[in-house]
């Protein structure tokens, strides 16, 4: 723990909330022990006893009702990261030590970039949800639009538009401000990189906002149409960020609080707020490296016919794969019998499972 930067520590603290809360992130590998903790532990412990920095404890004391949103946000971020990367060599796997994400949290690679972005976005998303459900005094629906609209297109703003302003502000405050107090270990460039990518995550929620509408009028005639702004599902935010990850930009370490692209020909091009940036090239994640906490892909399941990252060739890094036959039993050919039950047959299939050597 001592060796992680305050940034690492900070995120660790955030995830600790998830762990303590017994979230049903369930239940693989190091998450297994989640099952034994009970929901509500965090609330009972009180802010003072939580593993938070002094600034975060402050926020927690003044706004204890935000704790569920913080937990939700962390949960959203982690599970979306794992879902986006489930077929890749780096699969966003988590562990307890030394920080939940291990090496990737401090390596300054594009994986670090994605983690910071998705966690910051998760917080915006969950806090905004809480605003929209009317659970907060600080925020509610965005009413600034109400009344306007487009007469020619036949719709007007109404209903509850998601107001991401508060969630965005809160995410900045909770993640960035709390970590401005950098420890001696924290590397300045990495800090700024992380901050940029957290902001890119928040931008992702803003950029994926969309307009949903409902028709009113006699039997769905749509004489009147009411529209409201709504956040995209977090999965869509994840897709958006995954795309930014694929196109992330390597920057130079020599920072005067402003990064420039590493690529010589592109140095003059500005870097947008929504872009993900990274300092260091990633390891190849093919072989186990205990020092870096890289698990390697040995034993990972791969797809023999896929040309994508989950294909055996790519995932196994050319080492080849083993094939096992697995028997799969399921209910099939179900029939409805009058009256009233369903009768099925048991069907057995043999499936080939491929795992990396
Ligand atoms: C990621 O891959 C490792 C093996 O490299 C595996 O043990 C782990 O369960 C995977 N994690 C997830 C979240 O899929
Ligand atoms: C609203 O707040 C109450 C108590 O403060 C809490 O029990 C409930 O889960 C919250 N609902 C949402 C949707 O956050
Ligand atoms: C910064 O960190 C030091 C040492 O951990 C702590 O004593 C101090 O209160 C922190 N300052 C703020 C503003 O959080
Ligand atoms: C393997 O990849 C192929 C081609 O992408 C796909 O059609 C198939 O569903 C995949 N199989 C599994 C088990 O994921």
TrEMBL record:
Q: Name one GO cellular component term.
A: extracellular space
Which GO terms label this protein's molecular function in UniProt? Answer: cytokine activity; frizzled binding
Which InterPro entries does this entry report, sorted A to Z?
A: Wnt (IPR005817), Wnt16 (IPR013304), Wnt_C (IPR043158), Wnt_CS (IPR018161)
One GO BP on record is: animal organ development
| Domain of life of the source | Eukaryota
Keyword annotations from UniProtKB, A to Z: Developmental protein, Disulfide bond, Extracellular matrix, Lipoprotein, Membrane, Secreted, Transmembrane, Transmembrane helix, Wnt signaling pathway
Q: What residues form the membrane-spanning segments?
A: 7-25
Name where it's found. Secreted, Extracellular space, Extracellular matrix
Protein role: Ligand for members of the frizzled family of seven transmembrane receptors.
Family named by the database record: Belongs to the Wnt family.
In its UniProt entry, what is this protein called? Protein Wnt
Query: From what organism does this protein derive?
Result: Ictalurus punctatus (Channel catfish)
Gene expressing this chain: wnt16
């Amino acid at each position: 723990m001592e060796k992680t930067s305050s940034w690492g520590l900070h995120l660790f603290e955030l995830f600790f909330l998830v762990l303590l809360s017994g979230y049903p992130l369930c239940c693989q590998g190091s998450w297994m022990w989640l099952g034994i903790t009970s929901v509500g532990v965090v609330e009972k412990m009180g802010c003072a006893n939580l593993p938070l920095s002094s600034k975060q404890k402050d926020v927690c004391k003044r706004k204890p009702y935000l704790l569920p949103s913080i937990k939700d946000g962390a949960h959203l971020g982690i599970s979306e990261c794992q879902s986006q990367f489930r077929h890749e060599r780096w699969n966003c796997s988590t562990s307890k030590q030394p920080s939940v994400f291990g090496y990737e949290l401090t390596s300054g690679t594009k994986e670090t970039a994605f983690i910071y972005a998705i966690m910051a976005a998760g917080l915006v998303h969950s806090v905004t949800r809480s605003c929209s459900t009317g659970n907060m005094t600080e925020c509610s629906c965005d009413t600034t639009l109400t009344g306007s609209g487009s007469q020619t297109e036949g719709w007007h703003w109404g209903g509850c538009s998601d107001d991401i302003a508060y969630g965005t502000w809160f995410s900045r405050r909770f993640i960035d401000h709390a970590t401005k107090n950098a420890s001696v270990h924290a590397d300045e460039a990495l800090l700024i990189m992380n901050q940029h990518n957290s902001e890119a995550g928040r931008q992702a929620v803003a950029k994926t906002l969309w307009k949903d509408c409902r028709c009113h009028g006699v039997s769905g005639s749509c004489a009147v149409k009411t529209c409201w702004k709504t956040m995209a599902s977090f999965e869509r935010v994840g897709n958006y960020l995954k795309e930014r990850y694929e196109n992330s930009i390597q920057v130079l370490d020599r920072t005067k609080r402003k990064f420039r692209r590493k690529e010589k020909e592109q140095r003059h091009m500005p870097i947008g707020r929504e872009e993900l940036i990274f300092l260091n090239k990633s390891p190849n994640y093919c072989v186990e490296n205990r020092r870096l906490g890289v698990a390697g892909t040995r034993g990972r399941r791969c797809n023999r016919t896929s040309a994508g990252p989950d294909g055996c060739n790519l995932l196994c890094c050319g080492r080849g794969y083993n094939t096992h036959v697995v028997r799969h039993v399921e209910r099939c050919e179900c029939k409805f019998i009058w009256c009233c039950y369903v009768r099925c047959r048991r069907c057995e299939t043999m499936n080939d499972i491929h795992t990396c050597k």
